[in-house]
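Support request, please re-run this one:
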Amino acid sequence: MDNNMKHISRQSVFDDKYAANLLLLWAHLDNRSLWYELIASASNLSSTAATISLTWLGDLARSEIEFVKAIGLLRNYSLVEEMTDQTGYATHPVVHQWAYSIQTDEHKTSLSRLAIIVVRLTIPRRTVKGYCATQIRLLPHANCCKKQLDRGLINVSDNPGDATTAFTLGQDSGYLGKLVFERDLLHHAVNCIGNLYSEWDGLEAAEKLYVWTLTEQENTVGREHMWTRHGLQLRAIYTTQGKLDMVDKMFQRVMQGRERTYGKDDLRTLNAMSALASLHGLRGNLDAAERLYIRALEGFKKAVGPKHEQTLFILYNLGGLYPDRGKPDDAEIMCKQALDGWMESFGLYHPYTLDSLTLLANLYMNTRGASEAEKICIQVLEGYKGIRGSEHSSTLKAVHCLGSLYSIQGKLEEAEKQYKQALNGFERLLGPLLVCTFNPALDVMFDMGEQYYKRHLFSKARGYYNRALTGYENSSVDQHPRCGFIRKRLSAMD
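Re-run finished. Output below.
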């Protein structure tokens, strides 16, 4: 293999430097799966990224024929092989490590950045058919990008006065000229990979990438601009983890920055208003949450129309809020409007549609009866299993929802089975520490305590109540209405 690597290095320098450059870029991606679209997205979807990609990879970045030729050359030297399912190509770990080790620090920095841009531009929008499968395929490449970030190779804030950063790749080594990266392009790319992790429950990885982006922007363009651009993604992670104290502080900065920069009626301000309403809802400030949601809904309807994604999100959130406000009829109206919009845009088997169906099932449990709710719960569960697998948090939430239905029906043993399946799944997914701050998992613990309490299994009930209460309190959600309820239950069992 050493001989082959020497030959390919020499051959690529004098005859096909782009094939060698592909191998060098591949060293910053996962070695087990490379396909043409992963390389081509950068040149097809962004003019700025296309300039960078074409500088490094030439025509193979925009021509599948040239890409296959380059792969063929690498295969001739036994450095690349076709994957068994014929969906792409793989390279041996030794080759992968060798291609990384021969690069200078400048090369590593530059190609790490290009790899991040390539991965980001391959992430599909949720409106693209089969987007879940592509996202799953990209996660190993995202892991490689995150490793480069951990090594400190991605930082661009060392020269805050420059809007771009450039690294010369010497002609004498067979590489090409300069790769010039716009700082904002890199910030956005890292942020989007954080979104990918968040979508697939990689909360710690997502948090790290969001914090990196925010820190970089604070160092280069100022704190106010930083928070207005990317603060909401980090807010979503902290809210999911129950770190609401951090969210409170963050939101003061987000709202102030957006109102100063864009005005009260701008879409970016309306987005922040909607997110703040969500925070009020988690805090139990339902009056404030409803007022902000209604203001945001009116703003979005006027700005982007009643069927736009942002409008539908507000309708969905109001549908979730109104039951706690004692307005089940209004909740059903909001939920159905959101559901109709998602169905029209994406069809049944899409997360937005399935989320709205879950909300509708929860409403029907308390209004129209268990039979209709059960039918919807099973439909949602099968839908999530199909598009995201049995271990995704959305699927586990659907399992929990079905357990809640069984509990209402008095089928307590069946409910226990569903609750255990959901909680065990969350524990496998998140680990023993993070699961204790993950609100959906805490809700399962609470419901398990409830169903054991109803069966007079007080020892088991006490254990789950205490776990839920500790989690809610440690997550800075002491105002959560369940905290007081749990304390009353625990006192009643003493």
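The CA atoms of residues 255 and 272 lie 6 Å apart. The mean pLDDT is 81.
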